[in-house]
Design goal:
The structure is a single chain. This protein has 325 residues and is an alpha/beta fold. Helices cover 35% and strands 15% of the residues. It has eleven helices and twelve strands. The strands form two sheets. Strands 8-7-6-9-10-11-12 form a seven-stranded parallel β-sheet, sandwiched between helices. The chain has a five-stranded parallel β-sheet with strand order 2-1-3-4-5. Helix 4 (102-116) crosses helix 6. The longest helix has 20 residues, at 297-316. The structure holds 2-OXO-4-methylpentanoic acid. The site of 2-OXO-4-methylpentanoic acid has 6 residues, from loops.
Length: 325
């Protein structure tokens, strides 16, 4: 069984690939190049291909099919960058990976506290020796009514962490579960009841722009939004309007619409054509981070290992919890 891995970061993922190729006795080849239409040929001779977040177009899927690739595994939890329906229609299997939800849940909590306590302004001012207090008064997390949108593994772990703070916790999910101390509400009611929102839903047609002009209008003035899931869940233009009006008091955004050609590249010498990013980044009450909530040593190891595990399960024809289509 031969595996080819694209986008393998030499400074952290490579050693994991080396470790697991010798642990499982597998033939794994890696390139640091992100997968693109121009480098599909590199995977020739491998039935299994591992990728990261770059969009996998239908043309790329066709090319992989033509060189005999059986399965493409993304080393991420989300798989919205792959057209799974098309992959299935041409007989290519798709799998994802998994890692402990702690990394993203803890980062979400950090962004929540930083947003409520004006941490961006505090850091900016202290760095130029401005130690004044005016404009820096924050809010206690314990006083907030938190609306968690999406109660999968990460949403649930974030809820567990929140419980230590004593805030009211509400949730929305199309498949609600029994979670102690959490009241599920229909989405509209969640928007009008809560004053702080954290997004943990997958990006699908039903969730794209779940935060839009209408939902923002339902929220109380001064609400806070944290997004560590997918940029496409928020209509950026509507969010910018709501921030300008003070409807939204602060945001923590680890993800942003159209981030694919930015994160994780060094684009410092380029003119960046992402207006929402420039506008949001200029706001003192918006914290932007480059889709990094997942990034801990444990997560990186798990992402590589579980991607390989998906291929091993497929080859052995056994139950495969990572199989998407
Ligand atoms: C995922 O695993 O789905 C993530 O969001 C992290 C990834 C983009 C590296």
């Amino acid at each position: 069984m031969k595996i080819f891995a694209y986008g393998c970061r030499p400074y952290d993922e490579l050693s994991c690939f080396e470790k697991y190729s010798s642990f499982f006795g597998l033939d794994i080849k890696c390139t640091k190049l992100s997968v693109s239409e121009d480098n599909i040929y590199l995977a020739e001779g491998s039935e299994y291909v591992s990728v990261l977040t770059n969009p996998i177009t239908d043309t790329m899927l066709d090319s992989f099919k033509s060189i005999g690739v059986k399965m493409i595994g993304t080393r991420t939890v989300g798989f919205d960058h792959i057209d799974c329906k098309y992959a299935k229609s041409i007989g290519i299997k798709i799998s994802n990976s998994s890692y402990s939800p702690d990394a993203v849940a803890e980062f979400t909590l950090m962004l929540s506290l930083m947003s409520l306590r004006n941490m961006k302004r505090i850091i900016q001012r202290s760095s130029i020796n401005d130690f004044t207090l005016k404009g820096l008064r924050g809010c206690n997390l314990s006083e907030r009514k938190i609306g968690v949108i999406g109660t999968g593994t990460i949403g649930k772990r974030f809820i567990e962490l929140l419980k230590g703070f004593g805030c009211e916790i509400y949730a929305y999910d199309p498949s609600p579960e029994e979670i102690e101390g959490v009241i599920y509400l229909p989405l509209k009611d969640l928007f009008s009841t809560c004053d702080m929102f954290s997004l943990h839903a997958p990006l699908q047609s039903a969730t794209r722009h779940i935060i839009n002009r209408n939902s923002l209008d339902l929220m109380p003035d001064g609400s806070v939004i944290i997004n560590t899931a997918r940029g496409g869940l928020i209509d950026s233009s509507a969010l910018i309007e709501a921030l300008n009006e003070g409807k939204i008091a602060a945001c923590g955004l680890d993800v942003i619409e159209d981030e694919f050609d930015l994160y994780y590249y060094n684009r410092k010498a380029d003119v960046i054509n992402n207006k929402p990013l420039s506008i949001l980044r200029d706001m003192p009450n918006v914290i932007i981070s480059p889709h990094i909530a997942f990034y801990t040593s444990k997560s990186v190891d798990d992402m590589v290992r579980n991607c390989i595990q998906a291929f091993i399960n497929d080859e052995a024809g056994v139950e495969n919890p990572f199989r998407i289509v």
